[in-house]
Specification:
This protein is an alpha/beta fold and about 725 residues long. Helix content is about 35%, strand content about 25%. It has 22 helices and 30 strands. The protein binds adenosine-5'-diphosphate and zinc ion.
C-alpha cells in the first residue's frame, strides 16, 4: 500500500516530508497534487512529489485535504522541477515555486464572477404591449437579441445606460440574470484582425519543412533557426505551430520580456485567436490566474509569454519556440537561476516535443551545439521580399573629437543622415543603453566623484528631475552646490545618457518631433504602448531609447538607426562583451529598412577597428563566431566549459572575505583536476546596497563536477547566516 506521500512544503527547506494519506483521500491525491498538511503547530500547503509504502519516521501526521480537484503539476513538470533544482543548485521548493504563478499557488484563487444577462425565453415576462419600454431599455433588448448573452457591465456600457435600467428589465421578466465565472482577458479591449498563412519564401519553406520533420520525428529534437532580421522567422513559427495544432498538440512560444509588445501578441492572436493565452509580468494577479487556467483546462492551446511561460501547463506539447534565444533576459535573476532557453530544451526532452530556437545572432552556446551535432541548424539569409539588409557605417568618435576639439554626442555624419530623413519624412531611431543626463559628476579640481554611499558605482545625473540617482539601489540625492571635498563650485558632468541625447537632438532639430523611451519615460504602464503607437502612426520623427527599443520592433518607416556609443557594451568587464556588442548591433540594425526604403545604420565608437564591431558592420555572423570561438576555446570559457559563479554578500567586508576564502580553500581540495577555480576576489560590483561582495568562479566541462562539491562544501562550512551565498550556474552576468 503506497499510503505515505512525500510532500514538499512551501517553506524553503530542501527536504521532503512524509505524511499519511488517509483512506478516504487516497483516490483523489495524486502525484503533483497540492495538499494542506499540518506542519509543526501550524497548517501549510505543499505538493506531493512521490509515494512510498513505508517511512523511516514514526508518528507521521496525515494529509488534511487536497487543494483543487486535480494536480496542478503533471508528472513531467515534477521531473522538470527536480532537474532544475539539481542542475541549478537550487532547492526543490524554489523550483516548484517558479513552475506555478503565485496567483495559482495561492490557495482559493478563483475566477471572478460577474452577472451575466440573457434574453428571457419567449413567452416569459410581460407581453411587450403591456407597459412601454424606454428607448434605453429597447436598446438593451436589441443588443441582447443580437448577442444572445452579455455581462451586465459590458451591456450597460454599450447601451449607454446604468445597470439599474437592465435590472428593471429583469424585474419585468424580460431578461434573466445569473452569476457566471468570467476569465479576465488582458486583451479584452483589443480587436484582432484575423490573418491567413502567408505564401512562404523558399528559405522559409525549407525552414518550416525541417521544423515539421523535427516535430514529427524528433530528428533532431532541437533546431536552431538562424535567420537575419526581417527574414520572417515569426511566420515560420506560426506555420509550425499550425502543424502542432493540426496534430492535436499544443505549443509554447517564449519571447524576451521587452519584445513582448502588443504587436507580437497581435501576430499570434491574429492567426490563432482565443486559443492563445498570454503570460507575462505586467498582468495583474487575476489575469495571470485566469490565463493560466485557460491553458490548464485546455481552452487555450498556445501559451505565449516571457521566461515563465515556459512552465505553462500545456498538455500534449508539440512545439516549444524560443525567439531571440540569445537574450540574457532568459536567465532568471533569483533562485532558481535558470536559463529558460536551456530549460526549454530539457522540457522538450521530457515531454517528447520539438524545440525551435530562433535568433538573428545566436548565442555561442547554441551555435556550438549545432556544430557538435546536438542541435539541427537551418539558416535564412535573406529578408522577405528581397528587402536589402541595412548598410552599416562606423564613425570614429576619437577622430571626430580630434577634428572638432571635443567629443560630440551626435557626429556630423549622423546629423547629416538624420537631417536627410527628416526632409524625406522618414523615421530615425537613436540607441544608447544608458539613461539619465550625465553618468558622472566630478570635481575638476580635486577629482571627487559623486558616488553612491551604498554601492560601488558613481551616481547618474538626471537633469529633468535635477537629481543624482544610483542605478543599482535607486538612492536619490540632490546635486551638491559645491564639491563636498574641496568646496569648488565648478562641477563637471561627463558621460552621456539618453536624456542628454534628447536635449542635443532637440537643439539640433528644433522642429523635429522627438520622443525618448527608457525606464524614466515609461513608468506608467500605458506609456510604453502609447509611445510605440505614436511612433507607428508617424507622430514621432526621432525615437531615442535604451535596449527597450533594440528588440523585435517592426516599423516600416524607420530608415536610419544611430548607435550613439557602441563602446558601452564593449567595455563591460565580461568575457561575453564582444558577443553582446555583436548581438546588439545586429539587433539594432534589424530595426532599419523593414519597409520599402533600404535602411542605414550609423555606429559611433571610439574603437572603430574592434573586431566585433567590424564583423557586425558586415553582418558577418560566421566570421564573428569563428574568431570568438577560438578565443573561448583557448581560455576555456563557455561554450567550451560551463561556468559557476558563487557570490558571497554581507555587511561586514572582513567576514565576507573570510567566508569567501574559506569556501575557495575547501573547494580547492574538493574539486577534481578538471575544474578551474578562480578567486576569491571582489566582485566587479564590489558593494551593493551597503553589502560587500566577493566571488569564487569555477569552470569545467560538466556542471555536476562543480555543483556537487559546492553543495557539499556549503553544507560543511556553516557560513554565517549574515552572509548570503548566491550560486549562479551557467552565469550570464558576473557583476
Ligand atoms: P524576423 O522576426 O525574422 O525579424 P519578421 O517575422 O518580423 O522577421 O518578418 C518581417 C516582416 O516580413 C513582417 O512584417 C512579416 O509580416 C513579413 N513577412 C514574413 N514572411 C512573409 C512572407 N512569406 N511574405 C510576405 N511577408 C512576409
Ligand atoms: Zn546605490
Amino acid at each position: 500500500m503506497m499510503n505515505i506521500a512525500k510532500v514538499v512544503v512551501g517553506i524553503a527547506l530542501d527536504r521532503e516530508f512524509d505524511y499519511i494519506v488517509p483512506g478516504p483521500l487516497q483516490a483523489c491525491i495524486r502525484l503533483g497534487s497540492c495538499v494542506r498538511v499540518p506542519f509543526g503547530p501550524r497548517e501549510t500547503q505543499g505538493y506531493v512529489v512521490g509515494f512510498s509504502d513505508r517511512s523511516e519516521r514514526s508518528g507521521l501526521k496525515s494529509i488534511l485535504a487536497p487543494v483543487g480537484d486535480r494536480p496542478l503539476l503533471s508528472e513531467n513538470m515534477l521531473r522538470l522541477a527536480r532537474w532544475i533544482a539539481d542542475y541549478y543548485a537550487a532547492t526543490i521548493e524554489q523550483a516548484i515555486r517558479s513552475l506555478l504563478p503565485c496567483a495559482v499557488r495561492r490557495h482559493g484563487a478563483r475566477f471572478r464572477e460577474q452577472v451575466s444577462v440573457a434574453p428571457a425565453p419567449p413567452g416569459a415576462g410581460n407581453p411587450p404591449g403591456n407597459g412601454k419600454l424606454t428607448p434605453k431599455q429597447a436598446k438593451v433588448l436589441d443588443l441582447l437579441r443580437a448577442r444572445g448573452e452579455a455581462f451586465l457591465n459590458d451591456l450597460a456600457r454599450e447601451a449607454g445606460c446604468t445597470p439599474a435600467v437592465i435590472g428593471a428589465l429583469a424585474k419585468r421578466g424580460l431578461v434573466t440574470m445569473a452569476r457566471k465565472g468570467r476569465a479576465r482577458d488582458p486583451f479584452a479591449s483589443r480587436a484582432y484582425l484575423p490573418t491567413q498563412p502567408l505564401a512562404l519564401t523558399p528559405e522559409q519553406a525549407a525552414a518550416l519543412d525541417i521544423a515539421r520533420r523535427a516535430m514529427d520525428t524528433l530528428q533532431p529534437p532541437v533546431m536552431l533557426l538562424h535567420g537575419v532580421t526581417g527574414s520572417g522567422k515569426t511566420e515560420v513559427y506560426l506555420q509550425a505551430i499550425r502543424h502542432a495544432l493540426d496534430k492535436g498538440k499544443g505549443a509554447i512560444v517564449l519571447v524576451p520580456e521587452i519584445a513582448l509588445t502588443p504587436q507580437t501578441v497581435e501576430r499570434f492572436r491574429g492567426r490563432f485567436g482565443d486559443t492563445v493565452a498570454v503570460l507575462h509580468s505586467h498582468l495583474s494577479d487575476g489575469e495571470r490566474h485566469d490565463e493560466w487556467y485557460r491553458i490548464f483546462e485546455g481552452r487555450a492551446r498556445i501559451a505565449i509569454g516571457a521566461r515563465s511561460a515556459l512552465f505553462a501547463p500545456v498538455e500534449s506539447l508539440g512545439l516549444i519556440v524560443v525567439d531571440e534565444e540569445h537574450e540574457p533576459s532568459y536567465k532568471q535573476a533569483e533562485a532558481p537561476r535558470y536559463n529558460a532557453r536551456d530549460v526549454a530544451v530539457m522540457r522538450g526532452r521530457i515531454e517528447g516535443c520539438a524545440v525551435l530556437l530562433g535568433s538573428a545572432s545566436p548565442a555561442l552556446e547554441s551555435f556550438q551545439n549545432t556544430m557538435n551535432g546536438k542541435y539541427g541548424l537551418v539558416s535564412m539569409n535573406a529578408r522577405v521580399d528581397n528587402r536589402k539588409m541595412p548598410v552599416m557605417r562606423i564613425v570614429d568618435q576619437g577622430a571626430e573629437a580630434a577634428k572638432t576639439g571635443k567629443p560630440s554626442v551626435l557626429s556630423q555624419d549622423l546629423v547629416a543622415a538624420m537631417r536627410e530623413r527628416l526632409e524625406n519624412s522618414e523615421q530615425t531611431i537613436l540607441f544608447l543603453n544608458r539613461r539619465g543626463f550625465a553618468t558622472s559628476l566630478t570635481c575638476p579640481k580635486c577629482g571627487f566623484v559623486a558616488g553612491c554611499g551604498q554601492c560601488s558605482i558613481s551616481l547618474t545625473y538626471h537633469k529633468q528631475a535635477d537629481e543624482l540617482r544610483c542605478h543599482i539601489c535607486g538612492a536619490v540625492a540632490r546635486p551638491p552646490a559645491a564639491c563636498p571635498k574641496c568646496s569648488d563650485p565648478a562641477f563637471k558632468y561627463s558621460g552621456v545618457g539618453t536624456e542628454r541625447v534628447e536635449r542635443v537632438v532637440r537643439s539640433v532639430f528644433p522642429k523635429a518631433r522627438v520622443q525618448r523611451m527608457d525606464l524614466d519615460t515609461t513608468r506608467r504602464k500605458e506609456a510604453y504602448e502609447q509611445i510605440l503607437g505614436d511612433f507607428r502612426a508617424r507622430r514621432i520623427d526621432i525615437l531615442i531609447g535604451t535596449q527597450m527599443i533594440a528588440k523585435g520592433l517592426d516599423f516600416p518607416g524607420v530608415t536610419l538607426v544611430g548607435v550613439i556609443h557602441a563602446d558601452l557594451s564593449l567595455n563591460q568587464p565580461d568575457f561575453r562583451a564582444s558577443e553582446r556588442t555583436f548581438q546588439l548591433l545586429v539587433q539594432v540594425a534589424g530595426r532599419a529598412g523593414r519597409g520599402d526604403v533600404p535602411g542605414e545604420v550609423i555606429v559611433q565608437t571610439f574603437s572603430p577597428t574592434n573586431a566585433a564591431i567590424q564583423m557586425a558592420r558586415r553582418l558577418d555572423f560566421r566570421g564573428f563566431i569563428d574568431q570568438e570561438v577560438e578565443f573561448r576555446r583557448e581560455l576555456f570559457y563557455p561554450p567550451f566549459s560551463h561556468i559557476v559563479c558563487v557570490t558571497l554578500e554581507g555587511r561586514l567586508p572582513e567576514a565576507v572575505a573570510e567566508a569567501a576564502s574559506g569556501l575557495a580553500g575547501r573547494l580547492k581540495s574538493a574539486l577534481g583536476p578538471e575544474v578551474v577555480l578562480s578567486g576569491p576576489m571582489p566582485a566587479p560590483l564590489s558593494r551593493v546596497k551597503g553589502k560587500s561582495r566577493q566571488q569564487v568562479l569555477m569552470r569545467a566541462k560538466a556542471t555536476s563536477a562543480m555543483t556537487a562539491p559546492l553543495k557539499a562544501a556549503l553544507g560543511e562550512l556553516k557560513i554565517p547566516r549574515a552572509i548570503s551565498v548566491i550560486v549562479d550556474v551557467d552565469a550570464i552576468s558576473m557583476m
